[in-house]
User: Fold this.
Amino acid sequence: MAEKAGEKKKATFICARNTLEGVYPPLILALQAVRAGAETSLFFTFDGINAVRKGGIKKAKYFPPGLLGVIPGIPALATRMMVRMAEENAGIPRPEDLLEMCQLEGVKLYACQMTVDMMKLRPEEFLPGVEIIDAPGYMKLALAADINIFV
Assistant:
């Protein structure tokens, strides 16, 4: 797709899970997209909506596959280990820091209206700057975007 003179590229990402593997990819990709000069949006739906609720992203866990993931205490231990590995081995900040970086660098954050209604959430439960939009609102963003990724 050829870029018209002076027209910014646009990118949208969907986050549907508030787990480490659910929040890291869209946050990292959104941050890189905005840094590359794209107008960038993140749409949070289903359990992913908890990432943009006050204190919610700190609850993102890593559940190891198989039986290990259901043993009490293992997800908390695995989460600490994975976050430390991301920081120390890959230079990736904690999810809550990535989310703050996205906000500071201009990524627009949207919460899904349907999920808000289903979970009976209130606007004041969300981080400052999070806008609640419905599916048609997201589709307007997505159809105008150069790239859309459901992570």
Notes: Helices lie at 20-35, 74-90, 95-104, 113-118, 135-144. Residues 10 and 39 are 5 Å apart (CA to CA). The mean pLDDT is 94. Residues 74-90 form the longest helix (17 residues).
